[in-house]
Amino acid sequence: MNKQPDARLERALATLALVIISLISLANVVVRYFTNASFAFTEEFSVFLLVILTFAGASAALRRNRHIRIGMLERMFPALRTPLIVLQWLAAVTVLGLIVWYGGQFALEEYQWDSESPGLGLPNWWYVVWLPLLALLMLFRLTQMTLDRLRGRLSDEP
Hints:
Shape: elongated
Strand content: under 5%
Number of strands: 0
Structural class: mainly alpha
Distance between the termini: 12 Å
C-alpha cells in the first residue's frame, strides 16, 4: 500500500474550528466567572463551528477510509465486493446529494429573505451556506475513497 491518502484542507478546517470553539468557550467561562456575564456570540458561533467541524472531520475520515460503514457483507460475500462498494457509494451519494440540494435551497432562501441570526443579527446564510459546500466536499472525498477501493489502492479495512 502507498502512503495514506490525505485531506489536508478538511483537517485544517476541522482543527481551526475546534481551536476556535475551545478558545471562545474558555473565554466565555473565564468572563462569566469574573463578571457574572457572558459573551452573547459564543453559543451562535459554537454551533456554527460544530457543524463545520463535523462535516470537515467526516470528509477527512472518508478520504482516509475511516468512516463508519458496515463491512460484514463484503467479508461474507467477497464475490460481491465490487457491487457492494458501488451500492455503498450510491447510498452515500443519495444522502449527500439531498443535503447539497436542500441545504443549497435553504441557504438561497436565507439570502433572499435577508434572515438574520437571533443572537448577533448576522445574515443567516453566512452560517447555512457551509452545509451544502462541505457536503459537496464530502461527496468528492467519498468518490476518491470509492475509486481507490475499487482499484485496490486502499484496503477495505480501515
